[in-house]
Structure formats: structure tokens, C-alpha cells
Write a structure and sequence with these properties.
mainly alpha, DNA polymerase, domain 1, hpI Integrase, Chain A, single chain, 4 domains, 16 helices, 375 residues
């Protein structure tokens, strides 16, 4: 398809839809890959993106192989990308790591004439590591600084095993953890967003939002859902980040919306697609469209689709769902991680007090004010 290299759709005589990943011969030869065919669009898309990313890295390596010094930070990163530590990362994590490295390796630390990538990896000092992280923290954000430190620390650890480095400048930096994101959407805000998406002719984005909200899932996973993942109103899919298999029933309002959506998209298997082009959304375009809808709906700028997972989980907790029930929907294996998604609210606090003092005067769900029990 036009916006996903090497991927195209094929309709068989039987009417079945197949997704073909068919890179050109020069890519096949360079990467030692071949042709593949899938029933599931999301799997085909993931492979096509993976091949595209690998070929992009291959071209960069070919262009730079004369100039890159093996003992430079660029050389260390290239060596890291040939190890199992890199191969075992999810496609999404690889994209994140590449974004972080693309920004960090071109930075000049302090008054250095060389970019970080061109510096000798063995000679990077603790002081230089501290200064690099401080620059990123000042110019971008504390979160970006923490993530850069985390990625470089992992690369240096692998480099030590390979014999590329002997020091650990990014270890034990004592960075302060950034605060967990706590933003939640109200139900009214969700419906306002969905209605505006429909009004603007971008109903698929509204569907993504409602799926994230009702199923408590990440936008990336919901974008990749296909009609074949929905069986008797139950979604079965693998979370991209954790590889956890999920089976979650659709809510009543989702059933209604999906029934109408399927009637208008019976020519392919993808649930969420660009209404203007008829093609599935990629990971960048749907985020751009989301911003346009949010602005048109006059919703706060800080609201993001990723917050809908947290919003739905918090509402489930407020409704009295047990921790086990919550984890079966969100896919979290640890209660510590689940706690990040379920926000403390007055309604939850009020419910807890009501359960403790069930035979006494109840607390209002909103926790706004206690009844006067002195009378």
C-alpha cells in the first residue's frame, strides 16, 4: 500500500483478502529476505515496517562504512544492533530507540567539536555523560533525558560484553524518576471527541478512541485491529508491547458502533482506515488527525489518546472491579504497574469508606462532603 512500503492487498477469487509483503529484489538481496503472505493485516504491516527499517539502517551503514570508526559511538551502536539484545526488542521499542539515538548521537557535549556519535566510545567520561543528560533535560525534557540515559546504558552494557568499552559512564547517574502521567478523560469529553470525529468525516478515529476507552488498551494496538480479530463480539489480539494475548468482549456501545462501521468497510479487513484514501492509518497520521479533532472539539490540549487506557481502567475501578478483573482487561501482570493506570479519585475513596462502614452513614460517591452524624 502506498504509505507502507512493500505491502499490498490482494483479493482472491474466493473473495478472501490477503496481505502481501513483497520487497524488491535489491532489498531481498541486501537483507536476505523474501516474499510473505498474511491473512492478518497487522502482522503484514509489522513485517513490512521491520524490513523498511532494516533496509534504511543497511543503507546508512553502506554510506557510512568508510567513515564510521569501529571504536566510535556510532560503531558501538552499529555493533549493538547486530546482537540478540536488539533483535529481541519489539518493533515499537526499536522505533523508540532509533528516535532517541538519532537525536542524541548528533549532539555536541559542552564545547566538544565532535558529535557524540563520532567520539571514541572508550573515552566517554562520567562528566561528559552527566553533561549530555543535563543538556537533554534542559533542551527537551526530564523524561527524554531519562530515556536517553536508559538506552545508552543498555548499549554500553552490551558493548562491555563485546569488548568495545571498559567504563560505564551512564551507570548510577541517580536520575530522578519523572512523575507518572495522571491525565484522565471524562466520559463527556470522550463522547464530545467521538461526535466531532464523526462530524468531520473521520469516524475511524472516533472508533479508535472508543476502543481505547472501553477496552482499556493502547492506541497502537487498537489501530491494528481487524475484523478477523473480532469473534462473536469478543476481540482476540496480542498486545504489541508485552506480547500478552488478550480476549475482551466489546461493550454494548462498541457493538453498535462496530456494526455500523463494518457495513461501510466490507471491502477490506481493517477496522480503522483513512476515510479519504480508504487505506489503514499508520502510526503518525492518526495522531495528527487526533490533534485536529481535539482542537475542533475545543477539548484541552493535554488530552491524548494514550490517556484513554488509564481513563477506562480508572472507571472500571470506580465501578467496583476487582484487581484480577482489571488485569484481565488491561493485560497487566503486576499490581505495581496496574497501580500506575488506576488513578486515585474521590469516588474510589468514597466507595472504600462505604465498604468499611457499610452499616453506618454512607459517604457520597463524589466524596464532596460527609453527612453530619453528630445529630
Amino acid at each position: 500500500m502506498a504509505h507502507v512500503k512493500y505491502l499490498r492487498r490482494k483479493v482472491l477469487k474466493s473473495g478472501a483478502v490477503k496481505w502481501l509483503v513483497n520487497p524488491p529484489s535489491y532489498v531481498r538481496q541486501a537483507l536476505k529476505v523474501g516474499y510473505d503472505q498474511f491473512d492478518d493485516y497487522s502482522k503484514a504491516e509489522a513485517l513490512a515496517y521491520s524490513i523498511s527499517d532494516k533496509y534504511r539502517d543497511y543503507k546508512r551503514t553502506v554510506k557510512r562504512q568508510v567513515h564510521i570508526q569501529e571504536d566510535s559511538v556510532f560503531g558501538l551502536v552499529a555493533a549493538y544492533k547486530k546482537t540478540a539484545a536488539w533483535d529481541n526488542l519489539s518493533l515499537n521499542s526499536k522505533r523508540t530507540y532509533k528516535d532517541i539515538l538519532n537525536r542524541a548521537l548528533v549532539l555536541r557535549i559542552g564545547t566538544s567539536r565532535k558529535a557524540l556519535g563520532d567520539m571514541t566510545s572508550r573515552n566517554i567520561t562520567v562528566e561528559q555523560a552527566e553533561e549530555l543528560v543535563a543538556q537533554i533535560k534542559k533542551n527537551t525534557s526530564p523524561h527524554a533525558a531519562n530515556m536517553t540515559c536508559k538506552v545508552l546504558r543498555k548499549i554500553w552494557n552490551v558493548g562491555d560484553r563485546l569488548g568495545y568499552v571498559k567504563t560505564f559512564p551512564f551507570k548510577g547517574m541517580g536520575l530522578k524518576a519523572t512523575d507518572d502521567r495522571t491525565i484522565v478523560w471524562t466520559e463527556k469529553q470522550v463522547h464530545t471527541f467521538v461526535d466531532k470525529a464523526d462530524e468531520m468525516g473521520m469516524g475511524s478515529i472516533g472508533t479508535i478512541a472508543l476502543l481505547c476507552y472501553d477496552l482499556c488498551q493502547r492506541p497502537g494496538d487498537m489501530r491494528q485491529l481487524t475484523w478477523s480479530t473480532l469473534h462473536e463480539q469478543v476481540f482476540g489480539f496480542e498486545q504489541e508491547k508485552t506480547k500478552t494475548w488478550m480476549e475482551i468482549p466489546a461493550s454494548p456501545r462498541l457493538k453498535d458502533r462496530l456494526t455500523k462501521a463494518q457495513a461501510g468497510s466490507n471491502w477490506h479487513d481493517v477496522i480503522m482506515y483513512n476515510e479519504n484514501t480508504g487505506k489503514p492509518y499508520n502510526r503518525w497520521l492518526y495522531a495528527e488527525k487526533t490533534g485536529a479533532i481535539r482542537t475542533a472539539a475545543k477539548l484541552p490540549k493535554h488530552l491524548q489518546l494514550r490517556d484513554l487506557r488509564r481513563s477506562g481502567a480508572t472507571e472500571m475501578a470506580e465501578a467496583g472491579c476487582t484487581n484480577s478483573e482489571l488485569r484481565s482487561v488491561t493485560g497487566h501482570k503486576s499490581m505495581d504497574v496496574l497501580a500506575i493506570y488506576v488513578r486515585k479519585t474521590p469516588k474510589l475513596a468514597g466507595a472504600a469508606v462505604n465498604k468499611r462502614f457499610a452499616k453506618q452513614v454512607p459517604v457520597t460517591p463524589e466524596g464532596a462532603r460527609l453527612h453530619d452524624i453528630s445529630k
